[in-house]
C-alpha cells in the first residue's frame, strides 16, 4: 500500500481522512472562509502539502453533496507526484445563489491512483472504429 506524506501548513485544520472504510477518496478541508458568488470561481487553500509517491497521481473531485445541492464544482484537479506546494482546490459556483465555505469545511475529495505514462505518436491517419467521429449523444438517450 503506498503512503502519501502530508505536511501541515496550518496545524488547526484536520488532516485529510477517509469518511468510511473502503472509500476511494479522502476528504480535503478549506483553510479559509470565502463566499463564492454565483458563476464565480476561487482557488481555496487547504493548509497542507502532499508528497504523492512516484508512479501515482492525486485527482481532486467534487464533494457530491456540494455539487448536487449547492452547484459547487471543483476545477483543475490533477496533482502530479512531483508537486510539493500547498494543495489548492479550484471551485466554481454554478448556482444562482451565493454560498459561503467556512474554514474547516470539507470542500473536495482526492483519489490517489496509479498513473500510466504513454508514448505519444503523431500519425497521418487513425484506425477505424465503430463510433468514428460521432460526438456527444451519439449512443442515444
From TrEMBL:
Superkingdom per UniProt: Bacteria
Picking any one GO molecular function of the record gives: dUTP diphosphatase activity
User: What CDD domains has UniProt attached to this entry?
Assistant: trimeric_dUTPase
| Single GO BP term | dUMP biosynthetic process
Does this entry carry the keyword Repressor? no
- What residues does the dUTPase-like domain cover? 13-140
EC number(s) per entry: 3.6.1.23
PANTHER family annotated for this entry?
DEOXYURIDINE 5'-TRIPHOSPHATE NUCLEOTIDOHYDROLASE
* Name of the protein in question: dUTP diphosphatase
Q: Which organism is it from?
A: Candidatus Kaiserbacteria bacterium RIFCSPHIGHO2_01_FULL_49_13
